[in-house]
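Q: How would the structure tokens look for this protein?
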Amino acid sequence: MTATNNPLVFKYNTINNFLDQTGALRFSPHWESVRQLFTTHGLDAQNMILFSCDCAGRSDDGETTMSVRLALPDGTVVDADLCKGQASDRYHSIVKWELSPSESHDEEDLFARRILTNSDLAALFANAVESYYYLHNAF
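A: Here is the predicted structure in token form.
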């Protein structure tokens, strides 16, 4: 069995990625405008898991877009593109919002759903994210 298909390695890598990405979303000053954008749409970043974020390029009017993959508090997984204003340097709109099929068997999707839909695991994860973020950024 190689490291790439070892379930323990997968779980370890996934947890570390979730902690790192989600910590930035929930606590980093660089993500403040994203948190505010989600709040204006009735979403609480403190109860989401961020899988990934990538610069998606520029829109037709020259604004920067960022692609994110995240899990919402009910376990729904979403692929979204967020738009950042040139002048304000803040994310101000969601230009794409696609739900992943609820019957998805993607291991990351299932893992995030399990965390978010179990109140004990969600609380444990929230504490771990906060500890990981502040410890990681203390040095």
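The mean pLDDT is 91.

Strands lie at 49-58, 64-71, 77-84, 91-99.

Upvote if useful.
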